[in-house]
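anyone seen this seq b4? input:
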Amino acid sequence: MRARNPLYVMAKPPPEVQAAIAALPRNDPGRGPDLLHVTLISLYDLHYAPPEWLPATIAALDGFAAAPFALRFDRIENRKAVTLRTRDPLAEARAFQKALVNHLLARKAPIMDGTTPEPHITINYRGDRLGSQKMPPIGWTVDEIILTESIVGKTTHVEHGRWALRAEAT
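predicted toks r here
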């Protein structure tokens, strides 16, 4: 079954960080900077999901509280795609992902896929065979998460909700 409308919780960089990433020579200029994101958790494909799953997911996220966390990338790597990554453990981001999964599970929210990929930003989905290289660090403090549906093949994101992260949540 090929994904058609996968649903994710993601973090998007602020406009000034989007601009810095878009200016990288290995970035795909055909994709708008507003599509740049870090996937925090892959949930399920809305195309195949029962209609009650999306409202259940939104309700579970309404009750989620967590503190902002930093993301910082200092490498460009070509794997199947060209991505921004770091060798740093991103411990805060990984702890956030774990807390998010635990919260969703505790509220019995549907998380069929439930994967938490290593935080990265894809800047070119085609790959460029140029290998890995260091770069000046690009990062930001994630202060909100976005429930986003990706329309496969349409280069489109549909937002289903935003939730602010607050320091007092810790």
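The chain is about 20% helix and 35% strand. The CA atoms of residues 75 and 87 lie 8 Å apart. kinda curious what u guys think
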